[in-house]
């Protein structure tokens, strides 16, 4: 049985760590719940997809308004457990997020992806996402 829901309790958030850590290896388990809770106070939400009681996929996202595109659901983090890939979980998560974006009156659905993640890019193209911008960054 597959279900997607928001991680709202500390226990639910902690259960998402092993999968999120695959995308964000610099994260530390001891700090994870507090970091997510801090981001939640700033509008971040953490969704997780469970398959038979195991967390298979997680997505961190926010709904915000930006001048150039209007109201958008922006995905900060999206990852499916390496051992559970190619089973449709990522596609289910994207579909769930896009439906939520429509429910919340968003005009766009967007995410950034590291340039080294070619397999993820191929997946995003299959889901109908297109490259519309470049993201630039400077370490401070």
UniProtKB/TrEMBL annotation:
Taxon lineage: Bacteria, Pseudomonadati, Acidobacteriota, Terriglobia, Terriglobales
Keyword entries, A-Z: Acyltransferase, Transferase
Residues in N-acetyltransferase domain copies: 2-140
Domain of life the protein comes from: Bacteria
Family matches, as PROSITE patterns: GNAT (PS51186)
PANTHER family the record matches: DIAMINE N-ACETYLTRANSFERASE, GH14572P-RELATED
Organism: Edaphobacter modestus
InterPro entries: Acyl_CoA_acyltransferase, Diverse_Substrate_AcTransf, GNAT_dom
UniProt keyword rRNA processing, yes or no: no
GO molecular function terms noted in the UniProt entry: N-acetyltransferase activity
Any one Pfam family match given in the protein's UniProt record, by short name: Acetyltransf_1
The keyword Acyltransferase appears for this protein: yes
Protein name: Acetyltransferase (GNAT) family protein
């Amino acid at each position: 049985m597959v279900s997607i829901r928001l991680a709202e309790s500390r226990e639910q958030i902690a259960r998402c760590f092993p999968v999120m850590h695959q995308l964000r290896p610099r994260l530390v388990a001891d700090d994870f719940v507090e970091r997510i809770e801090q981001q939640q106070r700033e509008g971040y939400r953490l969704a997780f997809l469970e398959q038979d009681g195991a967390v298979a996929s997680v997505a961190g996202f926010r709904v915000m308004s930006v001048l150039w595109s209007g109201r958008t659901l922006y995905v900060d983090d999206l990852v499916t457990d390496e051992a559970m890939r190619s089973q449709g979980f990522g596609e289910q998560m994207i579909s769930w997020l896009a439906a939520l974006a429509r429910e919340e009156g968003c005009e766009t659905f967007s995410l950034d992806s590291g340039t080294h993640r070619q397999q993820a890019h191929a997946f995003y193209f299959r889901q109908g996402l297109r490259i519309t911008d470049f993201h630039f960054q400077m370490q401070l």
